[in-house]
Structure formats: structure tokens, C-alpha cells
Amino acid sequence: MMSFPLGLLADIIYVITPTYYRSTQIGDLLRLAATLRLVDNIHWIVVEDSNNISSAVKKLVKDSTVNFTLLNYKTPPSANRIHRGVHQRNFALKTIRSFKVSRGVVYFADDDNTYDKRIFNEMRNTQKVSIWPVGFAGGVDFEGPVVRNKKIVKWKTGFARKRKFPTDMASFAFNVTFLSKSPMPKIPDNAKHGHLETDFLMQLINSSDELESKAEDCSKVLVWHTKTMKQKLN
Ligand code: UDP
Ligand code: MN
Fold first, then answer.
1. Domains detected in the chain
2. Which residues are CB-contacts of 62 (< 8 A; sequence separation ≥ 6)?
3. Mutate to test the pocket of ligand 1, among 17, 112, 228 (most ligand atoms within 8 A of CB)
4. Residue 4 pLDDT > 80, yes or no?
5. CA of 95 to the centre of ligand 1 (A)
């Protein structure tokens, strides 16, 4: 594991979190905040799926002590509802692009997943696109690349195996310089069910050979696609 004694040398990780109001929202965000505050050089971009920034989320991100930008972007009524968080992630990408920074790493971190703090330093020195497995994604115990001799030889997944990059949103990070390209890479609103990630990654790279394997050659699970149960409130 790399460590960065001099904070200035470490690239910032822009962590993008779309979030929406439901009974478990604050609990989920609190869990994510608790992890992020353990990591240096994080810039947390939280995008509420709402017409206004809510006071509860504002207080939470302020109290987190993590550097943050809090935004809101309401999913338009016309949106294709197959995928969630698409417009919020794209708004965050545009916002990061507007920072005009030449160094840094971008990561999509949904509010309900579970993150081991070590995953952030794994992704920190991403040159192009880095990759690692995700627990409980793709209908298997963990979904991700199978690496032999530093090379991705195949993918383990239980869903839509024909996807070029059959992998979860939480499984990759990319260099911020991709955002200054024209057209800017975007999460497609019209992707087939479960194809957001592969369609996004195909805008960045052409082949798995370009992916940088992290988490001990993709042998360690450091992030889980967990879901918080909807609460039955009487
Ligand atoms: N989300 C959102 N608006 C919605 C539904 C979800 O912004 O109407 C966010 C949510 O908070 C999460 C991400 O989009 O960060 C993915 O949503 P969810 O976790 O429900 O999807 P799944 O895990 O089932 O793919
Ligand atoms: Mn989720």
C-alpha cells in the first residue's frame, strides 16, 4: 500500500455520490462519510436528486469534515428510469470539469455501498482507468476481472456476460484528464439495463489491457454493492 506523508504529493480523489431522499438516506450517507473522513485528499461531490439542497444533507456533509461540494440536480420527469443517479453523476462530471484541474482521480461512490478505506489509496495513482472487484455485484459473490500474470484474462460475473466491461460502477476510477476531452465522457441516459458502466468505460478505453488492476491483482474485495433495506414504518 502506498502512503503519502506529504499531503501535497497525493492526487485528490473526486468522489461522486448521487443521493435521494428516503428514510435511510442520512444513515447511508453517514456510513460513507465515516469512511471518507479516514482518507486524505478527498473531495466529496454530493449531488442530491432534488429541486433544492436539503438542510439535513448539508449539515451531514459539513459535519463530515471532508472537503465537499454539495449540488442538486433533479432527475427530469422525461428521464428514462431504468437507471438511477445518471443525471446527478453527469452533473458532477461537468462540475469537476469546470474546476479545470490537471491532476486527480474520479470515482463514483453510491451512497448505499460499503467501502473499505483502503480502496481509496488503491485508486489514488490511477493513470488512465483502474479496476478492482465489487462484492455482491453482478449476481455473484463478487464481480470483477480475473488477473493472471498482471493481465486481465477474463471477467467473473453472473449478469449480461456479453458486456465488454462487465463491471459495477463502484469497481473503477479514472484520471480527471478524461473530463477535459471533447465530447466529455458521460453516463449514457439511454443505456440498456445494466450497461451503464460498460457504455461509460467504452468512452475512455478500448480494451481491458488498458485497465490498471488494483487490490492485489483484483484478488481482494474492498467495496460491496450493499443495499439498505427499505424500512417498514408504522
Ligand atoms: N439515486 C438517485 N435518485 C434516485 C434513485 C437513486 O440519485 O431516484 C442515487 C442513489 O442514492 C445511489 C445511486 O443513485 O447513490 C444508485 O441508486 P441505487 O443505490 O438505488 O441503485 P442500485 O444500487 O440498485 O443500482
Ligand atoms: Mn445502491
1. 13-224 (3.90.550.10)
2. 68
3. 112
4. no
5. 20
Q: Kindly state the average pLDDT of the residues 123-151.
A: 97
- Neighbour-count burial for 185-218, b at 16+ CB within 10 Å, e otherwise: bebbbebeebbbbbbbbeebbeebeebbbbbebb
C-alpha cell at 57: 444533507
Q: Which ligand is nearest to the CA of 24?
A: 1
Compute the Cα dihedral for 224, 120, 25, 160 and give only its sign. Answer: negative
pLDDT at residue 3 tops 90: no
For residue 18, is the peptide bond before it cis, meaning its omega torsion is within 30 degrees of 0?
Answer: no
Cell numbers describing residue 137: 455485484
- Concatenated DSSP letters of 82-129: TSSSHHHHHHHHHHHHHHT-SS-EEEE--TTSEE-THHHHHHTT-SSE
pLDDT digits (tens, 9 = 90+) for 207-227: 999 999 999 999 999 999 999
Global pTM reads 0.96
Read off the pLDDT band of 6 (50, 70, 90).
low
Question: Distance (Å, rounded) from C-alpha 67 to C-alpha 39?
Answer: 11
Summarised one tens digit per residue, pLDDT across range 45-91 is 999 999 999 999 999 999 999 999 999 999 999 998 899 999 999 99
Q: Which three cell numbers mark 133? A: 472487484
Q: Kindly give, in sequence order, each residue whose CB lies less than 8 Å from that of residue 74, ignoring residues fewer than 6 positions away.
A: 49, 50, 51
